[in-house]
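Example 3.2
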Amino acid sequence: MASKEEYFEALFDLVRAIPAGKVMSYGQAGFLAGYTAREVGRAMANCPDDSIPWHRVVGSDGYLRIGQRSPVHQALQKHLLESEGVQFKKGSTVDMERHQVNDFTDDA
């Protein structure tokens, strides 16, 4: 049986390739890596190490969904994104028009 890390290897590789200052939605990451949005959320909540920029995966509306589980993690995610230059709209949602990776390929 594969470990979580092995099972989510393609997803983790994809998330590692998201450039700083950019974000991807759970659904977008799932579509590109072959997982459901729910599986992406589970994987981001349980990343194996610090080499995976979990904070760059957000809700399709720019909302930091991790806040439903932990306001502390939501504040950390917002801080990490802001430190990369990600801008937020009113209501603390990521400006998806400006920061979502829309033309993501392996060459990005």
